[in-house]
Specification:
The structure is a homodimer of 158-residue chains.
Chain A: H1 3-14, H2 20-27, H3 31-43, E1 47-54, E2 63-71, H4 76-87, E3 92-98, E4 104-110, H5 113-126, E5 129-143
Antiparallel strand pairs in A: 2-4, 2-5, 3-4
Helix pairs in contact in A: 2-3
Chain A binds a DNA duplex (17 and 17 nucleotides) through residues 19-21, 29-36, 39.
DNA sequence: CTTGAAAAGAGCGGCCA
DNA sequence: TGGCCGCTCTTTTCAAG
């Protein structure tokens, strides 16, 4: 992972529709070595996959909710089942086990309040939880999948 | 946006490395109309872009933090500047203006505690804030960019 | 929408420095 | 390693049913 790899990742995190020819030119390499680097980054698992990013509003998903969960005391086995159940819910975009007062944090995306109410009921009915706090987003100011790469000028999109 | 478009989006949200030929076959269409639908979805902005998803651990980013911010009372102009400043920080993956007790929520990804400390100092030194709460993730259980599409069987990846 | 086909371009691999 | 030059396969566009 040298500086060239970081350049490649920076560009590919912003756009994969670009051709290898143009990518190679931008990082100052010819096509073949550039292509080989991409293959290597994929083989190493640095690049996990290539996906299309969909605009949630355009498909009717207008409500983002951050959910903090405190679990009641339970066995490791029980928590395992909880993790599987929550992971399987398609409204759950992100799901983290936390340190501190909150045990789990979710980011949930649904159509509207009514849809969130249904989600919430499914969540609490299936599993007994000590405390669930829902915080509702009014406005998405920033949302990115591109990580901050060391020493990379942020967002050389143009 | 009919059922076929939803199928296309479901597949493309999971993987864009697939060829049009295979995609067309999977949705039960021939190449030409399938390709036209994709073009239309991109023109409409339903598909925003195609990107590479990078594994954060593989590039040394091991710490995810959820940050809740309460701002002191300030003018709209001041909040505008705040939003721009925070959006420009590359460690900030997501940034929402919230309803209720918390004014803003961030999801921040950094290398480690030391890096978060630096981020935190930059955040609070530049702008006076009433309250900032950091919650640290121990484990990423689920993380996806694929939204729940209406009536789509979740994750027909295979 | 389908099939079929053709031109343009990209991915991919060998071989040499 | 990187660079050049092919071969092959897609993507993309066009007709006509």
């Amino acid at each position: 992972m040298d500086a060239v790899d970081i350049k490649i990742l920076t560009i590919l995190q912003a756009d994969t529709a670009i051709s290898i020819a143009e990518l190679a030119q931008r990082v100052g390499l010819s096509q073949t070595p550039c292509w080989k680097r991409i293959q290597r980054l994929e083989a190493q698992g640095v690049i996990e996959k290539r996906v299309a990013l969909v605009n949630p509003e355009k498909i009717g998903l207008g409500l983002t909710v951050f959910v903090s969960i405190e679990t009641a005391d339970h066995s490791g086995h029980w928590l395992q089942r909880f993790a599987e159940f929550v992971s399987a819910m398609p409204e759950v975009m992100e799901f983290y086990r936390m340190a501190g007062d909150v045990d789990y944090m979710l980011r949930v995306v649904v159509a509207d309040m009514a849809a969130y109410d249904l989600f919430y009921k499914r969540l609490i009915e299936t599993i007994p939880l000590k405390n669930v706090t829902s915080r509702f987003a009014m406005q998405r100011v920033k949302s990115t999948t591109a990580y901050a790469l060391p020493g990379a000028a942020p967002a050389l999109t143009a």
